[in-house]
Design a protein that fits this description.
By secondary structure, the chain is α/β, with parallel strands linked by helices. The protein has helices spanning 21-33, 56-61, 73-76, 130-133, 140-159, 163-169, 179-195, 224-236, 331-350, 385-398, 402-417, 433-448, and strands at residues 13-17, 40-45, 49-51, 70-72, 81-91, 96-101, 107-110, 113-116, 120-122, 171-175, 208-213, 240-243, 247-249, 254-257, 262-264, 267-270, 274-276, 293-294, 307-309, 314-315, 363-367, 373-377, 380-383. A 7-stranded mixed beta sheet has the order 7-6-5-2-1-8-19. Strands 12-11-10-16 form a 4-stranded parallel beta sheet.
């Protein structure tokens, strides 16, 4: 195993595993509050950027440029060490983490303080065909792939003479009725129905969007009344809302639902929950039954004095909850937890008392397409255009850096004066096909040429 980088090796190292909400905000606050010779902050993440996930539905719909929903870690964290790679295992008994860079051999990295901010991954089920046919909705790559896929399906349906192929490409299935599923479904349905004006043989009524949810309600965060209103609005838009229904199979795009429905579809989006990152199981740290780190209200991992955790992968007690629940795994808690966490890391290093995290959940906002939304803030229920405006205002205030705020607002402003972009760039997901076809064709041409024929110089 190779040796770790030696930059600033004489200083204590604060190792942050993960560059998402918690990781980036914690690192940013540590950089601001630490003395220049007090410690070195090292952030390790497989990506060189942080993704602001609440804007993924708008990026998929084309309302926001995909580059504007990500924040380059090296630009924001200029005084930190940013390592693009994966932490595969942690041996806290030795204060050591194994880092696998994008290329090259893994190496061991020693730390003095450890912050685990690995987040979560999609929670899947052993459904036949899901791994081969489904796509998630947690990354900007998945969001753009989905946008291109929906528009490509319209191109195929418009161009084919086969009724079966046409119907298959006009069916879109979304599994999961939480924020990710509802917002992705609503934004893409809104975009697709707009796009049909440019397809002479496709009308909005030809599109079939399905929402499949195992529970008896959607958007539980906004309350039963607003969740019911959301269902009613989706049904009015022609979306097939199937509550208390499970996806049974999707082999080869043949969709089978627990209510007996069967049909063909080229597009299946899985947003049915998340689970703690499996990397946490490759540590010697305490985990609960759901694989999340056990921590107290200071976000210090139990039975340790120099390991911290927050966000989706850590079970932080919610001190504002009367029944002792854990903080919900959402961005609102993650951003606020990072501030307390960074302060506690510095306090622990300096021998000061730690602060407990206490934040009452103020409510939720959700976008349901252009000029449509739903919200429940401090118990006040808002819907329609006001909720849509509230949704955008809140999230643009939370997206990191002034640079990204201005760019997102600029995207929205331009959209007021220009029509939506509806071009599919599906070929970008298979960028080498054309070149490979050209080289294969050229090779075959050489093989067919008479060997006695002289080669013409270029």
């Amino acid at each position: 195993m190779n040796a770790a980088p030696t930059a600033k090796h004489h200083l204590p190292r604060i190792l942050i595993v993960g560059g998402g909400y918690v990781g980036m905000y914690t690192a940013l606050r540590l950089i601001k509050k630490l003395r220049h010779d007090e410690a070195v902050v090292t952030v390790v993440d497989p990506n060189s950027y942080m993704t602001y996930q609440p804007f993924l539905p708008e990026a998929a719909a084309g309302s926001v440029s995909p580059r504007h929903v990500v924040v380059p870690l090296r630009r924001v964290l200029r005084k930190a060490e940013v390592v693009t790679g994966k932490v595969t295992t942690i041996d806290h008994a030795k204060h050591s983490a194994v880092v696998q860079p994008l290329e090259g051999e893994p190496y061991s990295l020693h730390y003095d303080q450890l912050v685990l901010a690995v987040g979560s991954i999609s929670r899947t089920l052993p459904i036949p065909g899901l791994a081969e046919w489904g796509t998630g909705f947690k990354t900007v790559e998945e969001a753009i792939q989905l946008r291109n896929r929906v528009l490509e399906c319209l191109d195929i349906a418009e161009s084919t003479h086969s009724p079966e192929i046409r119907e298959r490409n006009l069916n879109f299935v979304f599994v999961g009725g939480g924020f990710a599923g509802i917002e992705a479904l609503a934004e893409l349905e809104d975009m697709a129905r707009y796009a049909t004006r440019y397809y002479p043989t496709i009308s909005p009524e030809d599109l079939n969007f399905y929402l499949v949810e195992a529970a008896d309600k959607v958007l539980p965060e906004v309350g039963p009344e607003m969740g019911l209103w959301t269902c009613e609005q989706l049904i009015k838009r022609g979306i097939h809302v199937k509550l208390e229904t499970r996806l049974e199979s999707c082999v080869g795009g043949h969709i089978v639902l627990s209510d007996g429905s069967t049909f063909e579809s080229e597009t299946l989006v899985w947003t049915a929950g998340v689970k703690a990152h499996p990397m946490l199981r490759n540590t010697d740290l305490p985990l609960n039954q759901r694989g999340r780190l056990k921590a107290d209200a200071t976000m210090q991992v139990l039975d340790t004095t120099d390991v911290w955790g927050a966000g989706d992968g850590t079970a932080v007690p919610d001190l504002t909850s009367p029944d002792g629940r854990e903080c919900a795994p959402n961005a609102q808690h993650a951003v606020r937890q990072s501030k307390v966490l960074a302060g506690n890391v510095i306090a622990a290093m300096r021998g000061f008392p730690l602060k407990e995290y206490r934040h009452k959940y103020v409510g939720s906002v959700a976008g349901l397409g252009l000029y449509k939304g739903v919200a429940n803030v401090y118990g006040v229920k808002v819907k329609g255009v006001p909720a849509w405006f509230l949704h955008r205002t809140y999230h643009v205030s939370r997206v990191p850096t002034l640079n990204r705020k201005i760019r997102v607002i600029a995207d929205w402003t331009l959209a007021l004066f220009f029509r939506r972009e509806i071009v599919s760039l599906w070929s970008m997901h298979e960028p080498f096909d054309e070149f490979q076809e050209a080289t294969t064709s050229d090779s075959a041409s050489r093989q067919r040429r008479d060997p006695r024929e002289p080669e013409v110089p270029h």
